């Protein structure tokens, strides 16, 4: 399932889930533009790993919460690659910029979540589609539970922004279908080397024990490589009939029901 000769842009590709996606694409021969916001060293480290895979790419800086930066980013991609085959919208701002309970949430925090996710994805789809021919792939990295539940209170702004991203996937899947461009979202489970690592150590330990104990049926947390593998599958020719979908990459975590304790569900 080689994607050799394809060109991709992965936002937030310098580390975590984005790095996992970039490396899996590179393993299949894709040249990758690695977006970063502040950590240029991490972006260059990812580029070095991409070259170890036998592929290539370049790093690109942008603040995805600023429309003018997003537009500039795609102009640089066009100048470097001449075209684009794969766009993965993965970047997320740091927790303090949006992480607040509903009654304490500020307008600035709300705007940061919406601008960095929904608005950025809107512009990103429009700009990437302009550079794509038939067979193009657009993928948004979401967190579907946060878009349909209200339990993680401090995630309210990001949950609403992710819900908007998922909706954009459906609308643009219809818009771009006649051009042979698919638009989908991937929803990882709680993932190692991601937002989890921004939380207190005690929270991380409890979360791992919770999922390893059975709330993820596969018995572990998601990894960036798991998400990268799913991206590669969606980018293949054999996935041309999959569009407008939100696909879980979570080892079955989204299948579990909180109505009964785990011991009862296991039977």
Plain-language structure description:
- The structure is a single chain.
- The chain has 267 residues and is of the alpha/beta class.
- The protein has one domain: NAD(P)-binding Rossmann-like Domain (Rossmann fold, 3-Layer(aba) Sandwich), CATH 3.40.50.
- 46% of the residues lie in helices and 13% in strands.
- The chain is built from nine helices and seven strands; from the N terminus they run βαβαβαβαβααβααβα.
- A seven-stranded parallel beta sheet has the order 3-2-1-4-5-6-7, sandwiched between helices.
- Helix 4 links the parallel strand 4 (86-89) and strand 5 (137-141).
- The protein is globular.
- The model has no long low-confidence stretch (mean pLDDT 94).
Radius of gyration: 18 Å
Give the total of domains: 1
Beta-sheet strand percentage?
Answer: 5-15%
* N-end to C-end Cα span: 39 Å
CATH architecture: 3-Layer(aba) Sandwich
What structural category arises from helix and sheet content?
A: alpha/beta
CATH homologous superfamily (4th level) name = NAD(P)-binding Rossmann-like Domain
Indicate the mean pLDDT.
94
Low-pLDDT sequence parts: none
Taken from the alpha-carbon principal axes, the silhouette is: globular
Quote the CATH topology: Rossmann fold
Give the CATH level 1 class. Alpha Beta
SS elements, strand count: 7
Indicate the topology.
Layout: E1 7-10, H1 16-27, E2 31-36, H2 40-52, E3 57-61, H3 67-81, E4 86-89, H4 107-131, E5 137-141, H5 144-148, H6 156-176, E6 182-188, H7 201-215, H8 224-235, E7 246-249, H9 262-266
Helix pairs in contact: 1-2, 1-8, 3-4, 4-6
């Amino acid at each position: 399932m080689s994607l050799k000769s394809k060109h991709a842009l992965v936002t937030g590709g310098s580390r975590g889930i984005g790095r996992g996606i970039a490396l899996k694409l590179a393993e299949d021969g894709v040249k990758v533009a690695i977006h970063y916001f502040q950590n240029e060293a991490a972006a260059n480290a990812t580029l070095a790993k991409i070259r170890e895979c036998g592929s290539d790419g370049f790093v690109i800086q942008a603040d995805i919460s600023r429309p003018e930066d997003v537009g500039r980013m795609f102009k640089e991609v066009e100048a470097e690659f001449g075209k684009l085959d794969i766009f993965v919208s993965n970047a997320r701002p740091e927790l303090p910029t949006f992480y607040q309970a509903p009654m304490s949430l500020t307008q600035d925090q709300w705007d940061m979540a919406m601008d960095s996710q929904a608005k950025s994805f809107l512009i990103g789809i429009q700009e990437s589609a302009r550079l794509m021919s038939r067979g193009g792939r657009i993928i948004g990295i979401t967190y579907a539970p946060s878009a349909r539940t209200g339990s993680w209170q401090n995630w309210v702004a990001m949950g609403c922004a992710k819900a908007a991203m998922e909706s954009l996937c459906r609308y643009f899947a219809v818009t771009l279908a006649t051009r042979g461009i698919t638009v989908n979202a991937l929803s990882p489970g709680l993932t190692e080397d991601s937002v989890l690592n921004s939380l207190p150590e005690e929270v991380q330990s409890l979360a791992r024990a919770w999922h390893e104990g059975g709330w993820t049926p596969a018995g572990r947390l998601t990894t960036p490589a798991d998400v990268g593998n799913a991206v590669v599958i969606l980018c293949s020719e054999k996935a041309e009939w999959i569009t407008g979908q939100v696909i879980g990459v979570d080892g079955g975590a989204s299948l579990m029901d909180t109505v009964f304790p785990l011991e009862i569900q296991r039977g």
